[in-house]
Amino acid sequence: MSLIQRLRHLLPLLCLSFGCPLMAQTDATGGGQRDEHAAGEAVDWKGDLVTTHHSVVLDSGERLHYQATAGTMPLPDYKGETRADVFFVAYTKTSDAVFDPARRPILFAFNGGPGSSSVWLHMGALGPRRVVMGDTEGAQPSPPGAFVENAHTWLDLADLVFIDPVSTGFSRPAPEQSKGQFHGLNQDASSVGDFIRLYLTRYERWASPRYLAGESYGTTRAAALAGYLQGEYGLFLNGIVLVSPVLNFQTVRFSVGNDTPYWLFLPTYTATAWYHGQLPPRLQNQELERTLQEVEEFAKTDYLQALAAGDDLDPDIHDNIVSRLADYTGLSQEYIRGTNLRIRIFNFVKELRRDERRVVGRLDSRYTAIERDHIGDGYERDPSYSAIYGVYSSTVNDYVRRELGYENDHPYEILTGRVHPWDYSSHENRYVNVAETLRGAISQNPALRVLSCSGYYDLATPYFAMDYTVSHMGLPPEHRGNITQTYYRSGHMMYVRMEDLEKLKRDVADWME
Predict the structure, then answer these.
(1) Rounded Cα distance, 23 and 34, in Å
(2) 71-95 b/e with 16+ CB inside 10 Å = b?
């Protein structure tokens, strides 16, 4: 530990013993000391950054050397004040003899929530270390969890920067700053976008090809960022990876009068029932993809028309739809009649295996849990979230301090509710739809390419909903090839399944080439 680091650790102890006015100016994240700044004076942004050196053996057998930088970057308002301290972990390849930024891409990654840190993509798929999930599909690992080298890291493809948006991870608003300025669709895009611009400036990476990778609401953020970065700074992107995407909220909001989610969720209901062996033999005994093709065709034709007819639906057609929905979901005809042909997600997860007193997961419907009772709708907890939360939380706290050498006693906010209520006022009385923002970004920047990655067992952001979103973006023929879609036999975090972790890396590598 350096002399400066030792003094930083001793300062709080000395202040507790003798009193110290400097404590009022200590960084809110617990790392580094913030000085008072006069208007226009630059903020010291290297206060608590820690750099370490490592290597990882890739799936190709090559050993890649890299440096890791962990810590917070103050986000200034350029009036002498710090708005927030944004925690990040950056990985930079060091194997090259001569560094040329123009030949080395950089990728900024984040998760969603809103309220989620970047831990899932960081330690699940992209980073040089990953959480061990075990070999048994759909099983919850035992605590406390561990990490190993990630042979399928994306670090050979690009330098990686993992961003924890304000109030997640170790990122915090600065003292006296309102957290509301960060907690909303537009506020979040601007603060994360400002961090990206600042990082490119301070680390001299404006000449590098630039990519984003977001998961879940992080895909919403990524699409919003494409518009913000281009419009605000002329910062055009080369590519965006959307992991478990949701761009048009109308496709996933089960609200009265909105029939869109019912038919878009149906193929994922089918995939889930197929995985759990709940379909009739004809559908159960054939390949999943073949069954899904049949269900997709039914969903966007007969089922969609039945939903559109509402109370005017012919009784005979109604009975036929009930019968086919029962076949495609594994639910009883009696239950489907009771839903008025409209099966909500929290009905489905409880009903599919109700007779066994089991619920299936929302993030990943391969996972199940036994609950206290088997009546009513919804569940006590999402078993697929429980399966990952504990091991990821323990592992990231261990990894950041023990391997990266970053010390911070504040809680690392994995997924916090402190960001709510999230501000969607810019879309008041309408559904958020950043697919239009992405369309505009591609129109302005035809070199922008998008890779969409969806899991068949994802009941949070169903794959068919993204199919619908892409086909309704209104892209001209010459831009439709800018979006590539891939699919996986897993859920929201497809990388927890080893086969799909490997496939995701291959898909991204092929796409970037």
Answers:
(1) 10
(2) bbbbbbeeeeebbbbbbbbbbbbee
Q: How confident is the model at residue 316 (pLDDT cuts 50, 70, 90)?
A: very high
Let me know if residue 40 belongs to a domain: no
Q: Which residues make beta-bridge pairs with 71?
A: 88
CA distances from 89 to 112, 125, 400 (A): 17, 15, 9
Question: Which residue, 89, 25, 73, is CA-closest to 401?
Answer: 89
Q: Which two tokens stand for residue 63?
A: 């050993």
Residue 26: the pLDDT is 27
Burial code of 2-11, b = ≥16 C-beta within 10 A, e = fewer? eeeeeebeee
Domain count, the chain: 3
Joined together, the tokens standing for residue 234 give 């002329």
Residue-level pLDDT at 454: 98
Terminal C-alpha separation, the chain: 41
Residues 6+ apart with CB under 8 A from 420: 114, 115, 183
Q: What confidence category does residue 29 fall into, taking pLDDT thresholds of 50, 70 and 90?
A: very low
How, if at all, do strands 147-149 and 50-57 pair? unpaired
Do both 95 and 222 map to the same domain?
yes
Alpha helices in 339-427 (DSSP H): 345-351, 383-402
**Would you state the torsion angle of the CA atoms of residues 112, 117, 121, 124, taken in this order, to the nearest 10 degrees?**
-130
Co-location of 6 and 133 in the same domain: no
DSSP assignment letter at 248: B
CA contacts within 13 A on the Cβ side of 358: 13
Place of tokens 């005979």: 316
Shared-domain flag, residues 106 and 236: yes
- Residue 40 phi, psi dihedral angles, 5° rounding: 85, -10
Q: Specify whether 182 is located in the same domain as 133.
A: yes
Same domain, 189 and 262: no
Coil, helix or strand at residue 404: coil
355, 356, 358, 363 alpha-carbon torsion, rounded to 10°: -80
Residue 411: domain span: 46-249+388-512
